[in-house]
């Protein structure tokens, strides 16, 4: 319930109030409690989404959803351009963030955010969401995704969309590594991209200490250059701070994860988790069903992230032939299985 300046009692839309308050107090986080999960195009619970991914998903539904259409109208139909989906207008100022282009549009608190019964835009007051559409899940959690993307444009760093039907979901989301819902963030994959030839020295600098200590297999400069196209790097301020490699074996629908390394000064900041999540998404996009790794050291870090020890027979034959048995490596595998059948798919996400 809200009140106008003249004392009129207003029935305000929850998400309009939430977005307005988050922007007004410059919140670090916005938490949305819903009655289900958000799934990716592969049917898995989508634990992480960048603002670019959320924005693109909303735009794909712009013609089918009033909420999505309102969002696009406010943020701008061409303000966010994706190199692989939309032509980039030369006259638009673009800022490079992660692997996509993000506009210079900034959401702001304007003494109310479209308080118009959730039915559209209220003059210059902002972005109206929700309304009758939110009563039906035919368009998914677009109100929540739109709210998340909108406030992220305005400076909120994190939005958590959690399933309120799961006991303890708020505690699980905030205090466990994997959480219990979907995290939308401005900088989820900031600086993460496929390696280029000019990244060679930065990758070599990170890998060398681990190779010298025997943690990683030593690669010659020639071998590293040949494998460079399989590497993913995280760049910050012009320096490579983390890297990982994914070598696909398409005949076995599997991929090897190798050379996960984070520079010493950046450890403990979640860069390894971000890289692994990126690698898993890339593996799924390539049609792979499982990923595996070889290690001579403790694999607790990987076990906590879903890997299980396996026998050498689980490794693709082509890779088995190249294993250096003298290293005494252990083998770990993780199956990238989609969510259980029984969910309704809907353009990159599904509902219970």
UniProtKB/TrEMBL annotation:
Domain N-acetyltransferase: 190-337
Molecular function GO labels: L-glutamate N-acetyltransferase activity
Coiled coil: none
Pathway of action: Amino-acid biosynthesis; L-arginine biosynthesis
Any one Gene Ontology cellular component term annotated for this protein: cytoplasm
Pfam families xref list: Acetyltransf_1 (PF00583)
Keywords of the record: Acyltransferase, Transferase
Domain of life: Eukaryota
Claim: Acyltransferase is one of the keywords in the record: yes
GO annotation terms (biological process): L-arginine biosynthetic process
Name of the protein in question: N-acetyltransferase domain-containing protein
Protein source organism: Aegilops tauschii subsp. strangulata (Goatgrass)
Lineage: Eukaryota, Viridiplantae, Streptophyta, Embryophyta, Tracheophyta
